[in-house]
C-alpha cells in the first residue's frame, strides 16, 4: 500500500485535515490519501466527561471517520515506527495484521500525545485515565460499582473508602470530570437504600494555586467556589506522591483513604514522533515538532505537522508564539493543512496559518460553567448555556447533534441512568503498588492470587513465629498456604513495592501446574 499523502493520527488535526483534503481531490483521493487512526472514530473530547457522568451515551461523542472524511482511505491501526529514509511506516492493525508496511511520499504528523502515568508510583495500576471513550465508559462503570459495593458493606471504614472519589488535575478535563462525578454520585445516592444520609466525598487535587490556568485565576477561582459550594473538597498546591489500592499519598505524607483515583494528568510526547525527530535531528521541545507558518517541518520536504504534537507559529495580537495544544487549534490546523496540501498538488504555494482566538469554556456541573470569549468573561448558568450551544454547533454530524440534544433534554427532567453494562475488570495479570507497611494480606485470609515481587520487598509475619523479608524477584505462592487454602502468614510491604498479581484463569492454571509438578517429583 502506497499513498501520495499519509495522515498519521485520527484526532481533530488529522481528521479535519483528511475531511478538508478529500473533497478537494475528489474520488482520486481514495487512492492518493490515507488517514491512519488507532480507532475508526473521531472522539469529541470536550464532551467526554459527560459520558463518565452518565449524562451522554458513548455513541453521542464519537463520529465514524469513514463518514466524516470522504474520498480518503481510512486505515485503523497503531503506527509502530516510521522509516523516513525509506518513506515507509509499519502499522499494527490487530491480531492478524501486524507489521503491515504503508508507503508515502508526504507525511502529516498529527499523533498528538500519549498517556504516561508511570511518573507517580501506583498511578498506572490504580489511576483511571480520561483520554478515550473506553476510559470514560470504564470510569462510569467503576463509579456505579463503588456505589453498589458501598450499599452492601456494614463496616464504616470500608464504606467511607468506597464513597471517596479523588480526581487528580485541575485543568479542563479534571474540573469537568470532577463536576460530572459529583453530579452522578449525589443524584444516585437516593436510589441506594443503605447509602441515604451517608457522607459522599469527592476531592479535586491540583498542583497549583488556581484551577483552569488557561482561562485565568479569576474564573478558575469562580469554578473552585462553585464546586466547593456543592460539596466538593479542594486540595490546591498539592501533589500526589503515590497511589495504592486503598489510598492516595500526597507529598509530605498526608493521605486519603479511597478506592477510586481519576487522573487527568500524565500527557507525554508520542514515542513515534520522538523517534522520527531523532532520525531527522529535530529538536522537539516537550515532544512538539517545530513547523513554519504553513505547517511544514523546515528542512524536510514532504513532512508536515499539526495538532498537539506540533509547535505551529501563531500570531496572537501581534505576538508570535506556538499554538496552544487544544482541540480548538488542532481543528483549525487540520483544515489549513488540508488546503495547503491541495494547493501544493495544484502547483500553488501554501498559505500561512491564521486564526483569531475565540476563548475557552469549561463546565463545572449542576448547570454552571465558566467562559472566556473574545476577552469577555462569563460564569454561571449563561456560561453553561453558551458551552452547550457552542459545542453542539461544533459536534460533527446532524445525527449526533440530534442525539445529544435529546439526551440533554432528558437530563433536565429525568435522573441519570445507573445501568451497569460493563462487568468489574478481572485481569488475570495485574500490577499492584504498595506503600511502605501497607498490608498485602493477613494470616488466615483466603488465597485469591499469587504474587511476584517486581520491585522493592515484602515482609512476611506469622503469629508466634519468626518473620522474613522477600526481596525483588521472589514469588508468593502455594508454599505459604495452609491445608484449607488460606495464607499461613501475613504479608506487608517492607518498603514501597511493586508486585504482579496472578489470578483468575491464570491462577487456576498455575495451581494445576504446581500440583502436577509436585506429584511428578
Helices and strands in order:
Elements lengths: L1 E7 L3 H14 L3 H4 E5 L3 E3 L4 H5 L9 E3 H4 L4 E4 L1 E6 L4 E5 L7 E10 L3 E3 L7 H4 E3 L3 H20 L3 H7 L1 E5 L3 H17 L12 E5 L11 H13 L3 E3 L4 E4 L3 E4 L4 E3 L2 E4 L3 E3 L1 H10 L8 E2 L12 E3 L4 E2 L1 E4 L2 E4 L4 H19 L13 E7 L2 E6 L2 E5 H14 L3 H16 L15 E6 L4 E3 L8 E6 L2 E5 L2 E6 L4 E2 L13 E4 L3 E6 L1 H17 L1
Parallel strand pairs: 1-2, 1-8, 2-5, 8-20, 10-17, 11-12, 11-17, 12-13, 19-21
Antiparallel strand pairs: 3-4, 6-7, 7-8, 9-18, 14-15, 15-16, 22-23, 24-25, 25-26, 27-34, 28-33, 29-32, 29-34, 30-31, 30-33
Helix pairs in contact: 1-11, 6-7
Features:
alpha/beta, FAD/NAD(P)-binding domain, Jelly Rolls, 5-stranded parallel beta sheet, globular
Tell me the helix content.
25-40%
The rounded Rg comes to: 26 Å
> Distance between termini?
55 Å
SS-derived structural category: alpha/beta
Largest sheet: 7 strands, mixed
Using the alpha-carbon principal axes, give the shape: globular
**CATH-scheme architecture of the largest domain:** 3-Layer(bba) Sandwich
CATH class of the largest domain reads: Alpha Beta
Number of domains: 3
Continuous helix count: 14
Strand content: 25-35%
Rounded average pLDDT: 90
What ranges have pLDDT less than 50 throughout 5 or more consecutive residues?
none
Assign the CATH topology of the largest domain: FAD/NAD(P)-binding domain
Per DSSP E runs of 2 or more residues, the count of β-strands stands at 34
